[in-house]
Amino acid sequence: MSEIKITKPELLCPAGDLERLKAAVDFGADAVYLAGEEFGMRTAATNFGEADMRVGVDYAHKHGVRIFVTCNTLPHNDEIPRLPFFLEQLADIGVDGIIASDIGTIGLVKKYCPKQELHVSVQSGIVNYETARAFYDMGAKRIVVARELSLEEIAEIRAKTPKELDIEAFAHGAMCVSFSARCLLSSYMTGRDANRGDCAQPCRWSYSLMEQTRPGQYFDITETDKGTYILNANDLCMAEHIKAMCEAGVYSFKIEGRAKSHYYTAVTANAYRGAIDNYINNPDNPTPQWVMDELEKISHRPYSTGFYFGVPKKEQTYPTAGYVRSYSVAGVVKGYENGMVVLELKNKFLKGQELDCLQPKQEPFILFANEMYDGDGNAIDSAPHPTMTVKIPCDRPVAVGSLLRMKTE
């Protein structure tokens, strides 16, 4: 393993819209990646029009956070004429970097966004130091290494490339079953092109085996009567291995999930902020248990460490398409007045219920709703109406934007 150690790694978080961008910034991101209305790999996300992008960039920059815009689809001929204008718009808005994979797009980025950093996307399939150096020679400031690499392989790339070239790697989120996220399965089965941001995720569907001469007669590949999810990858979670990733030369820790919720963005940003800060303060400290507990409170598939410690065996896939969901958001904190938390209700809860309070860049704490009041100060026994104002006594101030959560199990 390389001896290189990065003392202040970057936490890079996703944002599918302006609300999620602000959550990423507030809860601890050093940088945020997002997409415009074209040329990004997540059409399922709301994404950013010009106006929202300008607001988002301004908000991020005021908080010392950088913004990177994905331009990492494989554009077809009819899309190319629109690309220069889009890139000029990004330059005018003042984004900090452009993430691209297509070589032609990379050339246009260098031409129309000369002041922005060029980041080469995971879609480019970078698995060796020669390719990494080639992209550096083309003007790349950063490469996003392929998910198929081990930490040992990343360390060798770090050792054999210019130190000015940043290495970004995925630390958390969904894993794609295809090589470097390039897949035709969705196109074949649904007509939705994964390489242009419109993946239908057929790798998450249930499959059974059928013999050619016995049409309609299905044979289970596993012991379950629901078929087998042979393509269904576990989610990635490297929160316990920040030190190992840093020692391999990873500079930017990337959280997957531009199509995920505001809640997911806030929790993952806060948890990895805690894990990275813990490493910075003392590299030999284990990751705090509260960080790992937090990552169990979001909707996720079973976790694994992907390919980082070698090629995964059968534990990389799991026999269901479902997610683990153990918490939901009770309300969003709008203020703290006269010893009470003021929140906007998201989901019904009852008097006496245990709530889990997540504040930006802090370890969460438990709050009991032993007393509850509506917006007019009337005592209530339940909070049943979404968006209603609810006040709960609390002996400590709670930051605006904090989330109150409740167990759903």
Strand content: 15-25%
User: Main beta sheet, described?
Assistant: 8 strands, parallel, barrel
- Please state the average pLDDT score: 88
**CATH architecture identity of the largest domain:** Alpha-Beta Barrel
CATH class term of the largest domain: Alpha Beta
Set out the fold topology.
Elements: E1 10-14, H1 18-26, E2 31-35, H2 50-62, E3 66-71, H3 83-93, E4 97-100, H4 103-112, E5 117-120, H5 129-137, E6 142-144, H6 151-159, E7 166-173, H7 185-190, E8 209-210, E9 218-219, E10 235-237, H8 242-247, E11 252-255, H9 262-281, H10 289-295, E12 303-304, E13 327-337, E14 340-345, E15 349-350, E16 354-358, E17 365-368, E18 373-374, E19 382-383, E20 389-393, E21 403-407
Parallel strand pairs: 1-2, 1-11, 2-3, 3-4, 4-5, 5-6, 6-7, 7-11, 10-12
Antiparallel strand pairs: 7-10, 8-9, 13-14, 13-21, 14-20, 15-19, 16-17, 16-21, 18-20
Name the features.
409 residues; alpha/beta; TIM Barrel; Elongation Factor Tu (Ef-tu), domain 3; 8-stranded parallel barrel; 7-stranded antiparallel beta sheet; 10 helices; 21 strands; globular; disordered N terminus
Plain-language structure description:
The chain has 2 domains: 10-178 and 236-311, Aldolase class I (TIM Barrel), CATH 3.20.20; 327-407, Beta Barrel (Elongation Factor Tu (Ef-tu), domain 3). Strands 1-2-3-4-5-6-7-11 form an 8-stranded parallel beta barrel, surrounded by 5 helices. Strands 17-16-21-13-14-20-18 form a 7-stranded antiparallel β-sheet, with no helix packed on it. A two-stranded antiparallel ribbon has the order 8-9. The chain is 24% helix and 22% strand. The longest helix has 20 residues, at 262-281. Residues 1-6 have low confidence and may be disordered. The chain is built from 10 helices and 21 strands. A hairpin with a 2-residue loop joins strand 13 and strand 14. It is globular. By secondary structure, the protein is α/β, with parallel strands linked by helices.
